[in-house]
Amino acid sequence: QAQLVESGGGLVQAGGSLRLSCAASGNIFNIGTMGWYHQGPGKQREVVATITSGGTINYADSAKGRFTIARGNAKNTVYLQMNSLTPEDTGVYYCYADTYVGVVKYVYWGQGTQVTVSS
Fold first, then answer.
1. Segments of the chain scoring below 50 in pLDDT
2. CA 47, CA 62: separation in Å to the nearest integer?
């Protein structure tokens, strides 16, 4: 069964750092874009950062200069290094991946990992 498994969330003080990891397993081949989304309390899910299979990276404005996204050598893992965390970064972080079979796009989501930043 295809799935994304995240790890690395937790509780950290403001100004601290966390590193999130996500690994794809099962029948997910030729992954295109991977990324991270953030859903704050009572808010909609929003993109934090994405990275394509070719290495093109995009960050949300709130992540620029603080967060770094990277993919593993096998291209089926993605990491998010989060520095200088603030309470506004609190929420659930979801891993994202997509792949194409012909012209059909398949999207996968992880189960989410909680990040709590205390002030």
1. none
2. 10
